Structure of DUF4149 domain-containing protein:
Amino acid sequence: MSTISSLQLKRPGWQTVVIFTLTFWLSTSLVLDLVIMPGLYASGMMSQSGFATAGYLIFWIFNRIELLCAALVLTGVLVVKRTQNTLVSQSRNAIGLAMILLTIALIFTYVLTPNMSALGLNIEVLDPVNAVPAGMGLLHQAYWILEVVKLIVGGAILSLFYRQN
């Protein structure tokens, strides 16, 4: 009985959880943006009618993973702020940056991906359209701006947590 009561559950090292989550999230984002999507474009898939549907499915799954990662990062930042004696300004900065990451993930999931997919769908089956819709350029610009901001903010949180380790 004494061996059971002497067992102690270890809390996860939340700094490590945040670092690994951000590393996974940012690296998969770079793979998607710099390898998978250009590969699909180079293979000629963008000219096919099912590209919008395939792109939506890819991003639907990835956006949900992004939401989980953003929530885990924000949770980790809040736990670290609560349990460790860190500098107040660093913890406020980290919380603000984590909230920016969550906001970006929400924008990707519920604004950009559905709108890009809706613009890319060809409703008229008999009349194929080969031109890119006019609003798609603006959505692509918004996507890339948010993607760069996500990488910068994620890198800032990584540097804050890496310095604390």
Observations:
- The chain has a mean pLDDT of 84.
- The two ends are 37 Å apart (CA to CA).
- The CA atoms of residues 53 and 147 lie 22 Å apart.
- Residues 12-164 form one domain.
